[in-house]
Design brief:
It is built from eight helices and ten strands. By secondary structure, it is an alpha+beta fold. The chain has a single domain, classed as Peptide Deformylase (Alpha-Beta Complex), CATH 3.90.45.
Amino acid sequence: MRRCVPWFRLMCGGTSLLRDGFDAHAAPPTGSPSFKQVVEEKIDKESKALKRIVCYPHRFMTRPVLPVPTSQILSPPFMSSLMELNVLATDLHCLSFSAPKAHWDAAVILIKGSLDETEYEAWVNPSVPGYDDRNAVAPMYGMWENCISCGTATAWVVRPQRITCSGYDEHGNQKVQALDGMRARCLMHELDHLMGKSIFHQAMGPEFVVSSVAMAQRHLWPANFPSAEAYVTIPGQFFDYVQNKTLVPPGMEWWYAQNTRQEFGSERIGH
C-alpha cells in the first residue's frame, strides 16, 4: 500500500539512519561519507525513482494486467523485471508495490508486513476469493490509504481484516496463504492495481477522498466528517469495525510513535 502509503515513506534517509544508530554529530570515519552525504544520496535516489512511476489515469492503471504464464516465471526477462521492481520499491521505501506502477504489464505484487522487514514477498498471479465483494460478511478494518500513483490523494478504504490468497512465488512454486493486518491490506491495495482500479474506486464516496493538505488540517474538519469512524482514525491507524475502536497495525508501532502526533487517541465511537 503505497499500499504504498506516503506516510510510510517517511521512513527515508535520515529517519532510518537515526533509527539504526547513526550519530549525526560524530565525525565520519576516514573515507566514509558524512551523514549529510548519505541522506542526500538517498533523497536523490528516491527522486530518480519517482520519475519512473506510473500515475493514475495512465493506461497501465486503468485496465487489468496480463497474467504471467507459469512457464515464464523463471525466464531471464521475468527475473530481470522482478529485480528491477524490487529495486524501485526499495528506493521508494514502499511497504508494497505492483508491476503496473513500473510500466510492467504483469500480475506481480511485492509486499511487506512491516517496515522492519528487509525483503519483499513476491506474489505472481495472486487471487483472493471474493475480491471486491462489498457485501461480504467479514471483520473489516477501515484505514486512510494513499498511493504513490495517485498523487497527494488519501482515501478512506474498508478492507477485510484477513484474507486467503493463492498464487505463485518468484520461483514458480504455487502457494496459498492466510494474510492479516497490514500484509492483507497491502496485497489487496496492489491487487486493485492489477485489476485496473485504485483507491479512488474503493473509496465509499467522493467525500471519502481528501488531499494530503486536508489531512494535515483534520482539526478543522466538521465533526464526524466524512464518517464517525474515519474522523477518529488518523493516518497509520486501523479502525476495527468489530471492536469499534482504532488501533495501530502490528509491526508499525515504531513508525507510528516517531511520525504521528496522536490527536484523538484510541477512541470508541459513541463514548
